[in-house]
Protein: Peroxidase
Amino acid sequence: MARRVLHHNTSNHHPNNVTSPLLSLSLALLCLLSAPAASAQLTRTHYAGVCPNVEGIVRGAVQKKIQQTFVTIPATIRLFFHDCFVQGCDASVMVASAGSNRAEKDHPDNLSLAGDGFDTVIKAKQAVDAVAGCRNKVSCADILALATRDVIALQSGGPSYPVELGRLDGLSSTAGSVNGRLPQPNFSLAQLNSLFAANGLSQSDMIALSAAHSVGFSHCGKFANRIYNFSRGNPVDPTLNRAYATQLQQMCPRNVDPRIAINMDPITPNTFDNTYFKNLQQGKGLFTSDQILYTDLKSRPTVDAWAGNSVAFQQAFITAITKLGRVGVKTGRGGNIRTDCGVLGR
Structure:
């Protein structure tokens, strides 16, 4: 199915007394050992004392947004992933460019992010801040994490899972920081594994998170190389199901309207399920980076396992997206809580 998608264009203190080198080293080691990692500071009850109903408020806003357009679901999931993989899960992808500073969202790799993802977070933030006790207490980064869980679980049939909270919003957002941080449609398994490993994610995590394409969409230009002039001897990528390739050519003629987007799952495009893996078994992975998960023998066993076991896939996905939500978390002086998700320092 093809659809038109709108985009968002949118100082150290030194005591006077002298401390022995041995004592200084001991104290330094003690501080190092006792300092928790940022991700360890995330808890499910982070807002219990200031905004105990935050999850319900966000869920209500997300539900309303989904009723307006299904694009809300894949758009919000992609927004979360693109945010976490660049500077960590800090809502820096939400920031609008200002003056000469080009923010993350204006990098070419982010221009395909649909505006409905941004709007979901903005609407949820407004709903949270409309509650007196919650106003300016909940970060945009945490709202994005909650909204992602909700779009997966509410209407797309995906799993629900507890969301760890306590992220702060990032203090910077630059287009340059996106370079080389996001997977590309033509990536090999080795390239995918390398990029995910840099964010503390395993091959299993990568394969599970790739299944978000079960409810995603893509513009024709992202996979046109697979259906036109793939190689001199093979105009169509031989790993692509021939009937599916013909269908794609019909939906994506050479001079296609750039606003046309194609469902990444041709079978159950509105359901977050393990059909994604079944499609790969049949040569119906839209991107090279999707189909490689099956054509490469190092990842095929996982695809086969999850194609035949929905429960195992959902458990793996919960593990993976929880780990994703811990990437580059800002705490303490490393971040703040924005009142406007699109403006730094506010």
Q: What stands out?
A: The chain has two domains: 54-182+325-334, 189-324. The two ends are 41 Å apart (CA to CA).
